[in-house]
Each structure stands twice: as structure tokens, then as C-alpha cells.
TrEMBL record:
<keyword id="KW-1133">Transmembrane helix</keyword>
<dbReference type="InterPro" id="IPR045621">
    <property type="entry name" value="BPD_transp_1_N"/>
</dbReference>
<feature type="domain" description="ABC transmembrane type-1">
    <location>
        <begin position="99"/>
        <end position="311"/>
    </location>
</feature>
<keyword id="KW-0472">Membrane</keyword>
<feature type="transmembrane region" description="Helical">
    <location>
        <begin position="246"/>
        <end position="268"/>
    </location>
</feature>
<feature type="transmembrane region" description="Helical">
    <location>
        <begin position="101"/>
        <end position="126"/>
    </location>
</feature>
<protein>
    <submittedName>
        <fullName>Peptide/nickel transport system permease protein</fullName>
    </submittedName>
</protein>
<keyword id="KW-0813">Transport</keyword>
<keyword id="KW-1003">Cell membrane</keyword>
<feature type="transmembrane region" description="Helical">
    <location>
        <begin position="7"/>
        <end position="25"/>
    </location>
</feature>
<dbReference type="InterPro" id="IPR035906">
    <property type="entry name" value="MetI-like_sf"/>
</dbReference>
<dbReference type="Pfam" id="PF00528">
    <property type="entry name" value="BPD_transp_1"/>
</dbReference>
<keyword id="KW-0812">Transmembrane</keyword>
<feature type="transmembrane region" description="Helical">
    <location>
        <begin position="292"/>
        <end position="318"/>
    </location>
</feature>
<comment type="similarity">
    <text>Belongs to the binding-protein-dependent transport system permease family.</text>
</comment>
<feature type="transmembrane region" description="Helical">
    <location>
        <begin position="138"/>
        <end position="168"/>
    </location>
</feature>
<dbReference type="InterPro" id="IPR000515">
    <property type="entry name" value="MetI-like"/>
</dbReference>
Length: 324
């Protein structure tokens, strides 16, 4: 319990620091959306109109510390104000419309990549020196070393633009009404294939090497040699003895991957025009939409920190040594 409390205090401090940086970073950018609007109008907007726009969008001329306190209050109350590029839609409403798409894509990609990568790593480690052990880790490392944007553009060009096997973008056909119907869900899955495959290709190598390295360490233990001496089958040794004890680093990697998967979808969602948080970040930065930009960045940081905290809790549950 003391370990969990220490970690909880650490993550609370980390969230506070993240909120502070999230407040400061956008304000280091030159200008603001109202100034850009004034410049686009050729300087013909009257000063009183400019002041009214700033007040309406929340850009008050107040000391920085006062703005910081107002920002902290808005974060605690979840009143993040209106989005500038989608005015007057509230930021929370914009996030509630886009977050499910990112969670869906990140969740499915993480689960499938874990299953595929851990199976390859498990098989390769138990058959060291074989074809799978010599070829598959190198192959997946080569795939993972390619930037996500390059992989996404190649897949988009081949399968969507050239072969036209899959749609060019968006989450579903615009002429369909959203709903929990088989036709709509099938269309959503069809549109998610290419971004899902792209995200999985960048993640599978992590699980291959994580599981393989953990298994190699476990297979050198004395109890594995004892199990072999007892005449147990290779399958039973691999699944019931080795895999169970090699799962700790995998659990940590899983929890962290769920958080980083949300952050890693920026380029993928942009290339495939997928309606998630990643694409929203690019648009908010281009529009200098401070409230929306800050909310997106803060959401990603919180996802990563929460995933790490879940990993700490699972570690305590799986490893009795940490309970002492």
C-alpha cells in the first residue's frame, strides 16, 4: 500500500507539472487567433470589435498568474471554454466526439499487436536458432524502424489511392446515419482497416522483442530445467511455466502502450483523415485554437500517466516482493 501511495503522489505531481507546461507552451507562440483574424482582415477591424472578440474567446488582458489560476479552475471544473475554430462548440463536446474514434483505433491495434507479437516472441524464444528466431525479429524491427508517417503514406498510396481497395479517409461513409446497426458497424470497421494496420505494424516489434527477451531470461532458470527433466511436454513448459513468469515486463509494456498509442496516432489519423484526437491536434495547432490544443495535449499526458499508474498497480498484484 505504501508503494501505491508513493506512486499516486508522484503521478499527482506529474499531472500538475503537465498542466503548468500545457498552460505555458501555447502562450510562447507568437500572436493569438484574434491577432491572426485582425491580420487577415487587413487591419480594418475596429479596436472595439477586436476587444469584443478577445473577450468572447477568453483572451483576457490579465496578468499571467491570474490567467494561470483561471486555467486551473477550468481544468478542475472541466469547463475548458469554446473551441475557436469550431466556435461556439465547447471543447469538451469536441473531445467527446473525437476521443471514441482514437480509443477504438488504439485499443484494437494494441490488443491485436500484443497477441501477434507475444506469440511470435514466445515461439522464437523457445525455438532459439530456428527460422522464426532468425528471421521474424529482424523483419519486424525493419518495419518498426520506418517512420509512421512514411508507412502510412505507402499503405495509403498502394491500397487506397492506387488499388482503391479501401476508402480514402474518414471514419464512415457520410451518407450513413450513425447507430449501433450491423451495416454501420461494418462500414466503420472497413474504414478503420488501413489506419489499424499501419498502427499495428509500428507496435508488433515491441511485443516480439519484449516477450522474446523475457522468455530467454526465464528459460535459463533452474525450475525450467527441472520441468524438462520431469519429462513435461514443450508446450506445457512454454505456456504454464515460462510464459507465466515472463509476463511481468509484458504487463508493464501493455499499460504504457495504451497511453502512448493515443499519442502516436497523430500522423496516422492525419494521413487517413481519420476523425480522432491526432487529426484534431494538427488542426488546432494550425488554427491556434489554444483551448482545444491545450485540452488535446493534456488528455494525452493524462492517458500516459494513468497507464503507468495502472502498470504499477498490476506489478504489485503480480509480484509479491513489492508488497513487503
Amino acid at each position: 500500500m505504501a508503494f501505491i501511495l508513493r506512486r499516486l503522489v508522484f503521478y499527482c505531481v506529474a499531472i500538475f507539472v503537465a498542466i503548468t507546461f500545457n498552460f505555458v507552451m501555447p502562450r510562447l507562440m507568437p500572436g493569438d487567433p484574434v491577432d491572426a483574424m485582425f491580420a487577415a482582415a487587413g487591419g480594418k477591424l475596429p479596436p472595439e470589435t477586436l476587444a469584443a472578440y478577445k473577450e468572447m474567446l477568453g483572451f483576457v488582458d490579465a496578468p499571467l498568474w491570474q490567467q494561470y489560476l483561471q486555467y486551473l479552475q477550468s481544468v478542475v471544473t472541466l469547463d475548458l471554454g469554446p473551441s475557436i475554430m469550431l466556435f461556439p462548440t465547447p471543447v469538451t463536446e469536441v473531445l467527446s466526439n473525437t476521443l471514441p474514434w482514437t480509443v477504438f483505433l488504439a485499443g484494437i491495434a494494441t490488443i491485436l499487436s500484443i497477441v501477434i507479437g507475444c506469440f511470435i516472441g514466445l515461439y522464437a524464444s523457445y525455438n532459439r536458432g530456428g527460422f522464426v528466431d532468425r528471421v521474424m525479429p529482424v523483419f519486424w524491427q525493419f518495419i518498426a524502424s520506418m517512420p509512421q508517417a512514411v508507412t502510412a503514406l505507402m499503405i495509403f498510396f498502394v491500397f487506397a489511392l492506387t488499388l482503391r481497395w479501401f476508402p480514402l479517409g474518414f471514419g464512415f461513409d457520410p451518407d450513413l446515419d450513425p447507430g449501433l446497426r450491423p451495416g454501420f458497424l461494418a462500414n466503420v470497421a472497413y474504414h478503420a482497416v488501413l489506419p489499424l494496420v499501419t498502427l499495428m505494424l509500428s507496435m508488433i516489434a515491441t511485443w516480439v522483442f519484449t516477450m522474446r527477451n523475457a522468455m530467454v531470461n526465464v528459460l535459463g532458470e533452474d525450475y525450467i530445467a527441472m520441468a524438462k527433466a520431469k519429462g513435461l511436454s514443450s508446450r506445457r513448459i512454454m505456456t504454464h511455466y515460462a510464459a507465466r513468469n515472463a509476463i511481468l515486463p509484458v504487463v508493464t509494456a501493455v499499460s504504457m502502450a495504451l497511453g502512448f498509442a493515443v499519442a502516436g496516432q497523430v500522423f496516422i489519423e492525419t494521413v487517413f483523415n481519420y476523425p480522432g484526437i491526432g487529426q484534431l491536434i494538427i488542426k488546432s495547432v494550425a488554427a491556434r485554437d489554444y483551448p482545444l490544443m491545450q485540452a488535446c495535449f493534456l488528455l494525452i499526458v493524462i492517458c500516459v500517466l494513468m497507464a503507468n499508474f495502472v502498470a504499477d498497480i498490476l506489478y504489485v498484484w503480480l509480484d509479491p516482493r513489492l508488497r513487503k
